[in-house]
Specification:
By secondary structure, this protein is mainly beta. Helix content is 12%, strand content 31%. The protein contains two helices and ten strands. A hairpin with a 2-residue loop joins strand 1 and strand 2. The longest helix has 12 residues.
């Protein structure tokens, strides 16, 4: 497993990624990390008892550029249990690109059920192994509406950088 650490304006947390179970998803995420694409991005959607989502917007709530979408590997992924990282997507099951979320509750209703648009699920590709209390604190922040986006923390939560352990090339 690959370990990453998220350094945020509200503390650090680390996660182990499921390289073997969902290799395309992990490779996609690590590509964004290696490019430094998450630096300065916000955790722009926080819902206590559900998720903390980030990776897609800068501090001015401008959507960040993406690569093409990836194939949804949710059928091979672990459950969307508390503490797991998963790819965010639109209604199209194969639309995930750079946004991700941390489950702050057991959200098994997000798991793969069937190979249909409604049942495909969200690919959980890792698990927080250190610092989950930081994620919980972010999830508990008061929220507001910004530029039409709901559940935005009133106090910005910025991703300062994501570090890949044992990878000296991480920006």
């Amino acid at each position: 497993m690959t370990r990453v650490t998220f350094e945020t304006s509200h503390g650090h947390f680390s996660a182990d990624l499921d390289d073997d179970a969902v290799p395309r998803t992990v490779a996609n995420f690590l590509t964004y990390v290696r490019e430094g694409a998450y630096r300065g991005n916000l955790f722009h959607r926080v819902i206590e008892g559900f998720v903390v989502q980030g990776g897609g917007f800068d501090a001015r709530m401008r959507e960040q550029p993406t690569r093409g979408p990836i194939v949804n590997e949710a059928a091979h992924a672990r459950s969307n249990a508390r503490g797991t990282l998963a790819m965010a997507r639109t209604r199209d099951p194969h639309s995930a690109s750079r946004q991700f979320f941390v489950n702050v509750a057991d959200n098994d209703f997000l798991d793969h059920q069937s190979a249909t648009d409604a049942g495909y699920g969200y690919c959980a590709f890792g698990e927080v192994v250190e610092g989950m209390e930081k994620v919980d604190a972010i999830a508990a922040l008061p929220t507001t509406v910004v530029e039409g986006h709901t559940d935005v923390p009133r106090e910005p939560v910025t991703i300062e950088r994501v570090i890949i352990h044992d990878d000296p090339a991480t920006p």
